[in-house]
Amino acid sequence: MNSMKVNVKKLNENAKLPVYGSPYAAGADLYACEDTPVEIPAGQTRFIHTGIAIELPLGTVGLVYARSGLACKQDLAPANKVGVVDCDYRGEVMIALHNHGQESRTVCGGDRIAQLLVAPYYAVEFSEAETLSETVRGAGGFGSTGKN
């Protein structure tokens, strides 16, 4: 298992640093840092503060995913499905939480609201081409490789 140091700056004294829930967890929990409870009505999205800024190593990206328990039990998940924190971003990490349910939900300071996975990425040079290599799949998509 690879490890690296990631600097985190607290922008609010009540902020919590990301924490892994188990020794082999891929994602670290992100916590709400709100002074007052934030209500998220059914079908609505609210920006939730984490109170932290991070300094990701060059060549990595922070991917913000839903917490499965929060999404399944409380109907709350990031509005953009997967958030992207670029390695040159130094502002506050904010989570746009969407309420997919039928009831209003409340987020309080200290609640675990999402998880952050740090991953490497490739910076590629896109080159226009007249043709692409042939594959068995070809242009098939949206269920073309199996049932549904």
Account of the 3D structure:
The protein is mainly beta and 148 residues long. It is 5% helix and 35% strand. The strands form 4 sheets. The protein has a 5-stranded antiparallel β-sheet, with no helix packed on it.
What are the SSEs and their pairings?
Elements: E1 7-10, E2 19-20, E3 28-31, E4 38-40, E5 45-49, E6 52-55, E7 60-65, H1 68-74, E8 76-78, E9 83-85, E10 94-99, E11 105-107, E12 112-120
- Helicity, in percent? under 10%
Question: Are there runs of 5+ residues with pLDDT below 50, and where?
Answer: none
Report, as a whole number of angstroms, the end-to-end distance.
Answer: 35 Å
Individual helix count:
1
Helix and strand composition category? mainly beta
| Overall mean confidence score, pLDDT | 94
Radius of gyration over alpha carbons? 19 Å
The largest sheet has its strands arranged as 2-3-12-7-9
Run of helices and strands: EEEEEEEHEEEEE
| Biggest beta-sheet profile | 5 strands, antiparallel
Number of strands: 12
Features:
148 residues; five-stranded antiparallel sheet; 12 strands
